[in-house]
Amino acid sequence: MNKTSSEKKEINELTRVQELVYELRVSEVMTPRVITVSPESTMAELMSILRINRISGTPVVREGKLVGIISIEDLVKAYAARRGNDLVGNCMTRKVVAVRADELAVQAVNLFAQYGYGRLPVLDQYGTLAGILTGSDITRGLLRALSQRYHAEEIRRYRASHIFEDIDSADTTLMLRYHVAPRDFDNGGQASSKLKRTLQRLGANPALLRRVTISAYEAEMNLVIHATHGGEMIAEIGPHRILLRTEDDGPGIEKVEEVFNPGFTTAADWVRELGFGAGMGLSNIKRYSDNTYIESSPATGTRLYAIFKVSPIEADADETKG
Predict the structure, then answer these.
(1) Which pLDDT tens digit goes with each residue over 74-100?
(2) Residues near 64 by Cβ (< 8 Å), separated by ≥ 6?
(3) Structural domain boundaries of the chain?
(4) In degrees to the nearest 10, what's the CA dihedral of 197, 203, 204, 207?
(5) Sheet containing 129-134: which strands, arranged edge to edge?
(6) pTM for this one?
(7) Which of 142, 218, 272, 314 lies at 20 to 30 Å from 60 by C-alpha?
(8) What does the pLDDT look like over 244-295, one tens digit per residue?
(9) To which CATH superfamily is domain 5-140 assigned?
(10) Contact 180, 230 (CB under 8 A)
């Protein structure tokens, strides 16, 4: 079943939240100001503290050390048993599950799920009470972090996408250069992935990004397969076009006029056995670029050029360039 755009967005947002849970520390989401009671306080005094501060529980502290935790449920049980004048120390939970301030928020999430508690005391590295943490604290912290990251990302994207507008020059080009090692199939695709991340940060149109990324991967793998001593992939990014080119010192191509035909390949048998060199790379580059050409000879190696026009709006379904 195909997912709707709203479902895809929800999944994407959930992933970002999950990532944050594994990045944020408890100290970033906890409430540092803690309302506490002592073991010598009465349950009547506890009721007043909970009511005035509008909280449902609190740590029990003696001389700065955490000795227990008391909740509104404990208070209800005490009054049901007519123990309103009893001491907190006699009604509190002594075996306290706590979390450290320097731990990841996901640790607290796991503890909430495991024990079903409404709050967790937070201890510093010396075991002293440093704060209190509730599920609501984690939610607010995540929303705050998401908002901060969203605004930071928007500012960064705006600055990156307007980089050429802020430079006073007749012809401004950002050049990216990647070295590609020969026969390194394990790391094949890293250069094109780095180029993709850079274009994303520059605010590239998603459709353009796909076309350039696919072409860059195919060009990179050609270097891995054919370049004798490796080669270079260079991307020249300008306000109106992107020029992707590769250079290698390989054996060259004899029948240059045939290289863009689907299925044409000069890859060795062992390369094809690995699942590469099927002869679709160059035809794909031609398909997804606005202009492609090759210069090749046994003496100089091969130079591949692929040009992509940068337009303000590019149809998202533009995947059928011939």
Answers:
(1) 999 999 998 889 999 999 999 888 999
(2) 128, 129
(3) 5-140, 174-309
(4) 100
(5) 99-100, 119-123, 129-134
(6) 0.45
(7) 142
(8) 999 888 777 766 666 666 655 555 554 445 444 445 678 888 888 899 888 8
(9) CBS-domain (3.10.580.10)
(10) yes
